[in-house]
Amino acid sequence: MKKKEAFTQSEYLHFPEVRFFQWCNEKYKINKGIYHTIDEWFYTNGINNIISRRIHVIAYLEYLLTQDQFQTDSKYVKFGSGGLVKSLNEFLAETNSIL
User: Fold this and answer.
1) What does each C-alpha distance from 60 to 1, 6 come to in angstroms?
2) How far is CA 54 from CA 2, 42, 58, 90, 94, in A?
3) How does DSSP classify residue 73?
4) What count of other Cβ atoms lies within 10 Å of the Cβ of residue 18?
5) What is the reported pLDDT for 2?
6) d(CA 55, CA 47)
7) Considering the entire predicted model, what is its pTM?
8) Which residues, other chains included, contact 33 with Cβ-Cβ below 8 Å and sequence gap of 6+?
């Protein structure tokens, strides 16, 4: 199976909302507020389908792994004032994502 097809068939994309958030929290060190802001941002920017939105959320969180925000010893990823939206916009610019 191709990588993209395998990704879209991944079990965690179909988790109930709470379980999906918990998976993101454990893997990417984001708190509930950050998760909901990311999810809302993609929804507001045209990703209405929940599976597509979760794919975008995971792609963004994977992107964060390479960024300074993730290089922390704290419990959660940290963003300054307006930093999350700035980071989301940078993600779109760098990955040429089409919303």
Assistant:
1) 23, 18
2) 19, 9, 6, 18, 19
3) S
4) 9
5) 46
6) 10
7) 0.81
8) none
